Amino acid sequence: MSTGHGIRAVSDGTGDGIRLRRRAAVAGLALSLALLTGCGGDDTENTTGKGGDGSGSSGAASGKPAADGPAYKGVALPGYAKQAAWSLPTDNASLGVLDLDGVLLFAKDASGEYVTDAQVDGEPSDVNRVLFSSDEAEKLTLEFRDARTGAVRGTLKVTGESVEGVTWKDGAPAVAVGSSETTESDGLTQEETTTSAALYSADGTKLGETSAYEFGHVVDGYVVTKAEGDKTLTLTPVGGGTARTIPCNGDDDAECDFDAETGVASGDKTYAPAVVAGYYPGFEAAGNYDYDPSNVTLNDLATGKQVWSSADAEVPKGVVLDDEGKPTDRTVRVIRAADGKALIAWKKDIGLSPSTQVYAWYDLATGKLTSSYEAAQDLVESPDGELAALDKDEFDSGYDGTTLWQTTDGTRLWSQKEGETPFDPIRFSGNGKVLYGDAYDPRSLDGSHATLAVDARTRKVLAKDLPDNSIPAVDATTGFGFLATDDGFFVFPPA
After folding, report:
1. Which end of the chain is more exposed for a tag (fewer CB within 10 A), N or C?
2. Is residue 179 part of a domain?
3. Distance between CA atoms of residues 43 and 212, nearest Å
4. Structural domain tally of the chain?
5. Which range marks the domain in which residue 183 is found?
6. What average pLDDT does range 171-200 have in this prediction?
7. Contacts of 390 (CB under 8 A, 6+ apart)
8. Which of 8-17, 204-213, 360-369, 480-489 has the lowest mean pLDDT?
């Protein structure tokens, strides 16, 4: 079925398709995903600040706790309390919900029923960002609930074609409600469709509007655009302010791109989030001739001043160097930035699997390399970022087992050995103590697997043969896990 804004609905699928959709957020992308946006409807009524009964509410414990819902009768979920903190009555195992960092967002249709989660082309396979999508604008009631208590922090009546998660300034979670308008051809002119987006905070307060919406191009309150034939990317703040250009310098073939699914901009072998922690990237020598290797820079959004460049950075230990002391492979990725520091991944050596990286922390004030460690490229991280796991494929051994790292210093806590059933990590529990994943029988031809929960630090199996779709999604702010089943929607505190 076709949906609005050129977004096409996709089926659940089977086999590898399910496996990919269930995987957890990837390090380097988790904090910089192209958080999808929509186009603003103007039929809004904001009752934020009132509980579900109309009472005033504020703060983390806004409103009254959710009314008694169904009791959880499913299997025990390691890493979480046995009983749900709160629940909602529903028989919809595909209930739509967006995590807004301490707030869970639901949408009700005109009949008062909670909507089913929309799955659309272009949505990241590992993080749910689209709550609602339709060809036609519909009246909806958005319901903002406290993740800990289920209390209704507020409601917002809107009319639109889509409800999608985006980020506002400094990465604050936000919601975009969208619609589009089509002007029919008069016989001479072409039919034209225009779009706009209305953005709201996690408490339903209107933040701003933007026109000429393009799917996945609103990041941290900036609209990312690339004019046809242009080699650079432009960052335009929603609501006004100083626009910035992501420079793309190099030979005549130099061209920089933007991946709307991940929120990552790129040169040739250089990658960085389009906006990250108050910085934006630049790409030098993006044409990538061997004698002129490409580099990535970080620049201050407020001033436009360059604060860091891979061209001048100390290369971390472990990266293989050529005869001139330069990395044999100049693939460099900005993973994330926080607290005046940036995490950069350097490819270890040319010809090796791209999963082999050397991760290095740099102080942006001094440019100094402060620490580094080796790990894989795509890492499933714990909510606090202290642990990471991935298939042990950096050895190119053909064996799909898992290794788990401590990201602060790169210490390997454990690693599977040849002959063991390969474990495919999916998601950590909210407290980071449990790692959920699928154990795939290498002899199976149909992709059959068992879902397991293991102790993250000791790899002791805590539960096996868990039902499909029994791995809770995680609100990182609170550590609470949540999932919908045929028996209801349940939210669990961390154990």
Report:
1. N
2. yes
3. 19
4. 1
5. 4-218
6. 90
7. 355, 375, 376, 378, 379, 380, 402, 403, 425
8. 8-17
On the question of pLDDT at 53 being above 70, the answer is no
* Cα(431)–Cα(105) distance, integer angstroms: 22
Q: Could you report the per-residue pLDDT of 9-45, keeping only the tens digit for each?
A: 333 333 333 333 333 333 332 333 222 223 334 455 6
**Contact between residue 313 and residue 369 where contact means Cβ atoms under 8 Å apart:** yes
For the chain, report the end-to-end CA distance as a whole number of angstroms.
41
Q: Where are the alpha helices (DSSP H) in 72-158?
A: none
Q: What are phi and psi of 80, to 5 degrees?
A: -130, 160
Does 89 map to a domain?
Answer: yes
DSSP code of residue 444: -
Residue 457 sits at φ, ψ, to 5 deg, of -95, -25
Angle made by CA atoms 206, 208, 214, in degrees to the nearest 5 = 120
Contact present, 422 and 416 (Cβ < 8 Å): yes
Q: pLDDT tens digits for 199-216?
A: 999 999 999 999 888 778
Pairing status of strand 244-246 against strand 257-259: unpaired
Coil vs helix vs strand at 8: strand
CB distance 53 to 154 below 8 Å: no
**Domain annotation covers residue 479:** no
Rounded to an integer, what distance in angstroms lies between the CA atom of residue 453 and that of residue 474?
Answer: 15
Residues 6+ apart with CB under 8 A from 11: none
Does 35 fall in a domain? yes
Cα 427 to chain centroid, rounded: 13
Q: Give the amino acid at 331.
A: T
pTM (2 decimals)?
0.83
CB 260 within 8 A of CB 120: no
DSSP state of 107: E
